[in-house]
Amino acid sequence: MADGEGDPGVFTATVLPGDPRLLPTVTSAFLGTRVFRDILHAAGVYSGASGDTHRADVPSPLGLRMAAPGAHSPAESFTLNTWTGTFSHTIQSPGHTATHQLYAHHSLVHLMASSITIRRLDGSTHPITIQLRSLFVPQSQDLDLRPGPDFQGAHYIYGQTLVPEVEGGPRPTVHMLWTPIPQSLTLGGEERERCWEFLTAVAGSEEEAKRSYSAGLSLVAAGSLHRSHVRAWAALRRSCSVELDGPLALRQALQGCLYYLLSAIPPRDSPGVLFHGISPGGLSNGTRGEDYWGHVFWDQDTWMFPNILLLYPEAARAILQYRIRTLEGARRNAQEQGYEGAKFPWESAATGREVCPEEIYGAQEIHVTGDVLMAFEQYYCTTQDQKLFREDGGWELVEAVAQYWCSRMVWSEEEQLYHIRGVMPPDEYHSQVDNSAYTNAVARRSLNFATDMSRDLLLPVPEEWEDRARKIKVPFDEERRYHPEYDGYSPGEPVKQADVVLLGFPLMHPMSAEVRRNDLEMYEPVTDPAGPAMTWSMFAVGWLELKELQRAWNQLEKCFSNITEPFKVWVENSDGSGAVNFLTGMGGFLQVILFGFTGFRITRSSLLFDPTFPDDITKLKISSVSYLGNKLEVTITREEIRMEVTETSQDPPASPLEAVLESGQRFPLWEGQNVSFPTAPGWIQRSPS
């Protein structure tokens, strides 16, 4: 395995994978591309109507490939450095090296950059030439592009998407400036080393594209363009650092997941940049026919969000604001199906209208609406940010989801319970079923949260919310002591992916350890081994809860068949099919580490912990667990837990915290003070003093 000489965050190879989908991606919150590819994507820029809506292909000048003329089989290497957020290709020839670097600037999110450096290694004085191959053509199948006047040495094109998502809706405009790329570069005979920089700026307005390009040029002139990106990216990596002592393959997978997921979120100081959600394959993918067309699913809210929330709540808020901005589309979805409130689409793009190309999923896989609200609940419990709900549209979304669930239920006279009929559960091998355990449990959780939230905001609570939460059916087999997936489920029936096991985590549906075990035992052997990558992580979390460490490790190990070499790009299914650069699988994997190994559970009043590690892991350190305005550095070994509050917010002021063990021992958590205690279950809560 290529492992960057043991560095878990540097992935190096001498040969590229044969499948170009497995090349690494370089992405910011607004721009993304796959290395050596001739297209890039801009966030929120979709073309095509309803089910044909897909990320609009923007032609990319960044897909350069170097070649050394006359060199016979020069030594080549390709490196993804996750610590610097940079991909590089190096050609080593006798007497010189040529290095091509590519990155999406982390703080200047409208700017992508590449550089070519030729370095002479001997005393020769002859010119050295490197050829540049590019497939770039300033045209697109999705944009009506036309040329504009050059700007500060850059070429300029602009245009709108061809087809709006909804009839009469907006057609986003793209403006792009780029440094012209020559066919070759030459290091003069008197030169030892030279670096050429190439910038590409893409934005929704001419003004922003020019501002970003000019900012890039100023940094180039100061010799600090790459350094400014590395500084911003490294600050993010440090503040979201997760390290463990364990097998190299596990540490590499961890750092790869953090690189790809953190690439997708907005930088810290970007309040003006609208965030457009995270699709299963990320911003670099999603052209027509690829990676679900770049649509946003429950993958964002259920699988990726909890990790982002724990490490970086400001970015978690931006994800929620994407859902708030698409609320009107969700209201229209509910209305068209004959229901009240808001029904979030199974597949979402720019408007919140349903854009799934196959009607059955949009009509039946309705659990996504509860998944969206669970992300809001986790955020509120972790931050107590009432402003999001009082002033920024959060309450309107909570209320609309509660109204939807109430209108979607029907009363069963026979069972004296509310039913939700005709749905597809997360297990997509079954459709048109009644009372999906997961769907009904997430609906109950939605209604309970809406009730709690309305009380916190001092608003009247509709009686039907509490009544329906109390009386909704969640199927349970009293004889076998487990949760059937839906009414009429027969034990042994094949299941596509994690479904009922999600009741234990993340839903935390009330159940005994016996029932939790029975659910895991019932569904583990019948879950499709070729199913999507995030599934095994949830079985691993379940077994960790029950302290079945070998069984947890066996499930976690299954994830590795979805991680491709050499750049740790995930595939949705182990046979290589489905979405690629599958952030959903990475999100599930990270939850094993951040919630499974730690035992972290977000509740209304506290952050629970109950650490447990498989045998090969001896230590876990998380640099920045965010809770109630505090950032905690948490280090866990088998013997000891250490916690230190490293930072507290001033506006609003952070709540003082304490750690409480189940034994009753209490440990105040003051900023700058290191507290340690024996590894045991407990919780972090607001200090009563």
TrEMBL record:
This is Protein-glucosylgalactosylhydroxylysine glucosidase. One of its GO terms (biological process) is carbohydrate metabolic process. The keyword Hydrolase applies. It comes from Illadopsis cleaveri (blackcap illadopsis). It is an enzyme of class 3 (hydrolase). InterPro entries: 6-hairpin_glycosidase_sf, 6hp_glycosidase-like_sf, Glyco_hydro_65_C, Glyco_hydro_65_M. GO terms for molecular function: protein-glucosylgalactosylhydroxylysine glucosidase activity. One of its GO terms (cellular component) is cytosol. PANTHER family: GLYCOSYL HYDROLASE-RELATED (PTHR11051), PROTEIN-GLUCOSYLGALACTOSYLHYDROXYLYSINE GLUCOSIDASE (PTHR11051:SF8). Its EC number is 3.2.1.107. Belongs to the glycosyl hydrolase 65 family. It catalyses: (5R)-5-O-[alpha-D-glucosyl-(1->2)-beta-D-galactosyl]-5-hydroxy-L-lysyl-[collagen] + H2O = (5R)-5-O-(beta-D-galactosyl)-5-hydroxy-L-lysyl-[collagen] + D-glucose. Residues 284-490 form the Glycoside hydrolase family 65 central catalytic domain. Keywords: Glycosidase, Hydrolase. Transmembrane segments: none annotated. Residues 601-647 form the Glycoside hydrolase family 65 C-terminal domain. Catalyzes the hydrolysis of glucose from the disaccharide unit linked to hydroxylysine residues of collagen and collagen-like proteins.
